[in-house]
Design brief:
It is built from four helices and five strands; from the N terminus they run βαβαββαβα. Strands 1-5-4-2-3 form a five-stranded parallel beta sheet. It is globular.
Length: 107
């Protein structure tokens, strides 16, 4: 399954109105994430496919490998998914905002 990709700069330019899912583990998420991202750890993706509600849904991890796996899975189940290349490391390197703390609203 081929999954589209987007750079962090292009994602940032789209703004906070997109559906962005971060598939990193809880400790990684708590260390810092995109303010408007939803947290769904990679292992939870199969039971959380209903959260892939965007047209498309953007998926991110640390560098892009786990998010690609999640994207392939979601795409195989009929969702339009775009992988964020470079992940949170590229996001931070570009100087874009992150927030730290545990996720209490999205699981």
């Amino acid at each position: 399954m081929i999954v589209e990709e987007i750079s962090v700069a292009d994602l940032h330019a789209l703004g906070a109105e997109v559906v962005l899912i971060d598939v990193r583990e809880q400790d990684e998420w708590a260390d810092g994430h995109v303010p408007y991202a939803r947290h769904i750890p990679l292992g939870s993706v199969p039971e959380r496919l209903a959260d892939f509600t965007g047209a498309p849904t953007y998926v991110m991890c640390k560098v892009g490998a786990r998010s690609l796996r999640a994207g392939e899975y979601a795409a195989a189940h009929g969702h339009h998914v775009v992988n964020v290349t470079g992940g949170i490391l590229a996001w931070r390197a570009a100087g874009f905002e992150t927030v730290a703390g545990l996720d209490v609203s999205h699981g």
